[in-house]
Hints:
Largest sheet: none
Structural class: mainly alpha
Number of strands: 0
Shape: flat
Number of domains: 1
Low-confidence stretches: none
Oligomer: single chain
Radius of gyration: 25 Å
Order of helices and strands: HHHHH
Number of helices: 5
Distance between the termini: 58 Å
Amino acid sequence: xxxxxxxxxxxxxVGLAFGCVPILLGWLVAPNRPDSEKLSPFECxxxxxxxxxxxxxxxYYLIAIIFILFDLEIAFLFPWxxxxxEIVGTPEVKFFGFIEMLVFLAILVAGxxxxxxxxxxxxx
Length: 124
């Protein structure tokens, strides 16, 4: 049983090697000579206009949260869509699987309409 997972282990180890070895080589081989100009803050070629810890508009976070919600919707829809033929093929869950996803999509559409009605998607 564990022999089936050996290629996955090798894949993970090779992936970690491809990600970590160049970083470690750069850290070990690259020269490290920091000076005041390299350590100073930099903003598009100009001195920074204000402090880096400035406040962001709440709408930015609201749009980000709404994006994450609808992105997670796709994460639920893809597995369901891949086994849709199997769901419809079994008589016991034929309508249940379809109605279940319709309810899920209806909840998401209701949330989208609510966010739209509250003006969460308007950007001034």
